[in-house]
Design the sequence.
């Protein structure tokens, strides 16, 4: 995690020395607009922050794991999606008092298409997940759970964790299995996901009526902490390449 000073410096550096601005639209590609012609570089300020910028760069360059394969963003299934949401599910079950059944991530939330094999830098997780989305949990009745899985099927699938499996047929979800059992409309299910989706964005307005449990932690920090924990325990990163959506 960053110290308060590093976070402050990150903000200053992005404002003053960045050559790009990013428009955030949840499920579209990122658009970059050059701002150099509007905001010329302030040489004095740039000199002042240079030592701190170097410190921040060193933090971003820290290796927090090693990947034995490329992680790619694809639909309906992807090893990137499996890996990422499995981490969210694992960590959610440590952070929340009641057991969490599944985790998911909206497809557009991933902002780079590939995380390359080899040493994994902390900065890469920031590139993958640059927005300040918290990890939250919502408890859904069976009917809303079906609506959510249908919503994912309509857009040809989202990244989903272990414990969830379904088939897409005519843009609807069929054969939905949760923890190996058929979806039960009379049960409730606990789902970990970004607050962006849980509050009704990403065309998931039907979720906004449910009370959410907020971890208060950014999703990227959840993933970084998980990877740092594996490092401390000398454990390798594991990646499940199974197809969860058929």
Sequence:
């Amino acid at each position: 995690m960053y110290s308060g000073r590093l976070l402050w410096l990150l903000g200053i550096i992005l404002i003053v020395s960045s050559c790009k601005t990013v428009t955030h639209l949840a499920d579209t590609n990122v658009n970059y607009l050059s701002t150099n012609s509007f905001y010329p570089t302030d040489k004095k300020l740039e000199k002042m922050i240079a030592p701190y910028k170097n410190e921040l760069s060193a933090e971003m360059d820290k290796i927090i794991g090693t990947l034995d394969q490329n992680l790619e963003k694809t639909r309906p299934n992807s090893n990137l999606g499996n890996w990422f949401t499995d981490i969210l599910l694992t960590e959610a079950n440590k952070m929340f008092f009641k057991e969490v059944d599944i985790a998911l991530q909206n497809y557009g939330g991933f902002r780079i298409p590939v995380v390359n094999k080899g040493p994994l830098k902390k900065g890469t997780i920031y590139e993958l997940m640059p927005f300040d989305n918290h990890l939250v949990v919502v408890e859904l009745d069976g009917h809303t759970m079906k609506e959510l899985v249908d919503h994912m099927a309509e857009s040809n699938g989202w990244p989903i964790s272990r414990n969830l499996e379904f088939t897409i047929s005519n843009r609807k979800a069929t054969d939905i299995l949760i923890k190996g059992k058929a979806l039960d409309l009379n049960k409730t299910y606990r789902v970990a996901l970004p607050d962006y989706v849980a509050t009704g964005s990403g065309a998931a307005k039907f979720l906004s009526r449910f009370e959410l449990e907020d971890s208060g932690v950014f999703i990227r920090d959840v993933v970084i902490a998980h990877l740092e924990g594996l490092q401390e325990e000398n454990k390798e990163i594991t990646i499940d390449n199974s197809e969860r959506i058929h």
Remarks:
- DSSP finds seven helices and 13 strands in the chain.
